Amino acid sequence: MKKLSVSTLILAAFCCCAEVIDLTKEAFWQPLDNVLFFENTITSNGRAFLKSKNVFDIDPAKKYTIKLSVKGKNVPAQIYVAFLPLGKYNEDLATSTFYCMRNTLTQVAADAKKGDTKIMVRYGNHWKSRPSSCVVKNAKVDDSDIPNKNIVAGDIVSAVKKGNLWEITFKAPLRSDVKAGSFIRQHLSGGYLYFGGRKMVTPNKEIVMQGTIAGYAKPGEYRFNKWPHNVKKARLALLLDWTNKNATIDIKDAVLTIE
User: Fold this and answer.
1) What is the pLDDT of residue 8?
2) Burial 225-252, CB ≥16 within 10 A → b, else e
3) How far is the C-alpha of 38 from the C-alpha of 9, rounded, in Å?
C-alpha cells in the first residue's frame, strides 16, 4: 500500500475542514540538544522527552488523531506518544490529580494537624494501601475539585473501623492541616495520556503508530483515549528511546489531525 505524503494529507484535510499539523517541523517542538530535524524527519539520539511548544485548547466535540512512522538503530527502545494534561497556568498535571480510587470520598470527622499520622473519617470501607496512591484534601462530593493538586499524604498503612468512625493511618506524616467537615479522597499515580500508543522499536523494522483521543472520561477515570475530567488544555509529547539511552530513532510522516 502506497504511503500518503504529509502534504497530501494536509490537502485532503483542508477539503474536509479538518486541521492537520505536520509534526516533523522543528518550530512545533521545544528544543532539545539530542533531537534533530532534517528533511521531514525527527531524529532522537538517546533518551528524549519532546514536548510541543503549542498548547491545545481541548474541544471535547473533536477527535485528535496522530499517526507516525518509526524506525530505529541500536534498538530495541521504547517510544510513547502522549498528550500531557495541563493546569490553569499551563503546568503539567500529574495523573494523581485526576485518577481516583473508587468510592473513597469521605468526610473528615475531626481536625488533623500537619505532622499527624492518623485521621478519623466517616467512612473508610474502600480505603486500601496501594504503593502508587496518595490522598487529596478539599475534595468535593460533585467531583468539581478534580483535577485536585492538594495532596496531603501518600500511601496508607490501614483503615480500621472504630465505633461509628474509621481511623486512617498513613505511612508518612500529613503535609498540611485537614479540617473537620471537609472531604478527602484517595488518588492513584500513573503515566500520561498515551493515546498514540506505546511500542518497542526493534531492529530493521518500521512500525506505524496511530491513535485517537476524543471526549471526556467520567470523573476520576484515567483512560488513554479520553480527556481527564475538567482538564481544559494539553500539550503533545513524544517519549523517545525511553528504555535505551544509546538508541537512535527516526520519525517520519508524523501528523496530528483535529476534526
Assistant:
1) 54
2) ebbbbbbebbbbbbbbbbebeebbbbbb
3) 20
| Residue 80: strand, helix, or coil | strand
Q: Does residue 1 lie in a domain region? A: no
Residue 79 burial class via C-beta count within 10 angstroms: exposed 0-12, middle 13-18, buried 19 and up: buried
Q: Which CATH number covers residue 161?
A: 2.40.30
Q: Side chain identity at 43, as an amino acid letter? A: T
Band (1; pLDDT cuts 50, 70, 90): very low
Residue with cell 472504630: 162
Provide mean pLDDT across the span 38-51: 96
Q: How far apart are CA 113 and CA 115, in angstroms?
A: 6
Mean per-residue pLDDT, 198-207? 92
Q: What is the mean pLDDT of residues 235-256?
A: 95
The reply to whether 112 and 80 lie within a common domain is no
**Cβ-based neighbours of 112, under 8 Å, separated by 6 or more:** 118, 119, 120, 174, 177, 178
Q: Which of 151, 171, 188 is the last residue of a domain?
A: 188
Q: 150 is written with which cell numbers?
A: 492538594
Domain co-membership, 89 together with 152: no
Cβ count near 198 (within 10 Å) = 16
Contact, 228 vs 58, CB < 8 A? Answer: no
* Single pTM value for the model: 0.89
Beta strands in 99-181 (DSSP E): 106-107, 118-121, 133-137, 151-153, 156-162, 165-170
Domain that holds residue 219: 6-93+191-258
